[in-house]
Design brief:
Helix content is about 30%, strand content about 20%. The chain has helices spanning about 5-10, 30-40, 55-70, 145-155, 245-260, 265-290, 290-300, and strands spanning about 25-30, 75-80, 85-90, 95-105, 105-110, 110-115, 155-160, 170-175, 180, 200-205, 210-215, 220-225, 240. The radius of gyration is 27 Å and the shape is extended. Helix 2 (about 30-40) crosses helix 3 (about 55-70), helix 3 crosses helix 5 (about 245-260) and helix 5 runs antiparallel to helix 6. A hairpin with a 2-residue loop joins strand 8 and strand 9. A four-stranded antiparallel β-sheet has the order 2-12-4-5, with no helix packed on it. A four-stranded mixed β-sheet has the order 3-11-10-6, with no helix packed on it. Strands 7-8-9 form a three-stranded antiparallel β-sheet, with no helix packed on it. By secondary structure, the chain is an alpha+beta fold.
């Protein structure tokens, strides 16, 4: 592995962008992982022989993907403005979300996921409720369904929260910055705590690749914190992993290759499996980075008065 000079690290040899190598020492590239594995674990006098490089490369990628899903804390953050259709297009490398917030007046407001459906597809129908088709036999669809239109225009009922108002806790309609309430009929007992939140709400449409927001989010800035699979759009040269997980990746590759080979004794497979699990636990402990200063900050919370 070639090491960078300090000039290469700080200034990138005078090339743009100058921050290309900042923080790179804590990572090892996919290429180096495959080369090191071939050098140290593959050969006629080694436990693994007659294995192709593309097999090692495939299993190394799978190990990195599993780490990104479960153990690594490589959270990506993206800021985008919500359009008039109240949609936020998911990033191309999105796998799962960590937190979704609205950024307003210098503050992040965490948003709550709406457990109810706030989007839907629809089919066009005639006056007799027959589904309409085009000349090719495909169903005709409108741009927005009624559920989408209600969400965009704000005509869905939501819970109003204001302790100073007599309408606190009642369901109403929020449109153009004004709340409208229906005439109360009968008693209403208890608050639906699952949807009670003064911040806007969201729901992710995975199939369409968008996040749908409630009607008061048009034009607002949204900060999405999400998990990727670490594959960097399929460019092998850009794939890297934290060095703390390097030994685990070698153990993972060794285990899956030996598990798929014919004639390998069961005790060897079990030994590599235990080694893989142990190295993963060690790497998680190292990456947790339990610092005395952080622990002290949490302990200070014991002095809070509970009302």
């Amino acid at each position: 592995m070639a090491y960078l000079t300090q000039y290469q690290y700080y200034e990138n040899d005078g090339n743009n962008p100058e921050n290309a190598n900042w923080g790179s020492y804590q990572y090892i590239t996919l290429k180096n992982i495959v080369n090191n594995f071939e050098l140290m674990y593959v050969g006629n006098d080694k436990l693994i022989n007659n294995v192709e490089r593309y097999n090692i490369l495939f299993h190394a990628k799978r190990a990195i993907q599993e780490l990104n899903y479960d153990s690594l804390k490589e959270i990506k953050i993206l800021e985008l403005a919500v359009d008039d259709a109240l949609r936020f297009i998911l990033p191309d490398d999105y796998v799962n979300w960590v937190r979704i917030s609205m950024y307003k007046n210098g503050t992040l407001f965490p948003l709550t996921e709406n457990i109810q459906t706030n989007w839907s597809s629809a089919y066009l129908q005639d006056n007799n409720y027959k589904i309409l088709f085009d000349q090719d036999g495909n169903v005709l669809k409108p741009e927005f369904s009624t559920v989408d239109i209600d969400r965009i225009t704000g005509s869905n009922r939501t819970i109003y929260l204001n302790a100073e108002s007599p309408y606190d806790g009642q369901e109403g309609y929020f449109y153009n910055g004004i709340w409208y309430f229906e005439y109360p009929i009968g008693g209403r007992y208890g608050l639906n705590t699952e949807t009670a939140n003064q911040n806007p709400t969201f729901k992710i449409n995975k199939k369409s690749g968008v996040i749908n927001f409630s009607s008061d989010m048009a034009g607002e800035l949204v900060v999405l914190e999400y998990v990727s699979d670490g594959m960097e759009n399929g460019v092998n040269q850009d794939i890297s992993v934290n060095k703390l997980f390097e030994e685990f990746i070698y153990a993972y590759i060794k285990h899956v290759i030996l598990s798929s080979k014919f004639g390998v004794q069961e005790y060897i497979i079990n030994r590599t499996k235990k080694e893989k699990s142990a190295l993963l636990r060690n790497a998680k402990i190292r990456l947790s980075n339990i610092h005395p200063g952080r622990l002290l900050m949490n302990l200070r919370g014991q002095n809070k008065w509970i009302k």
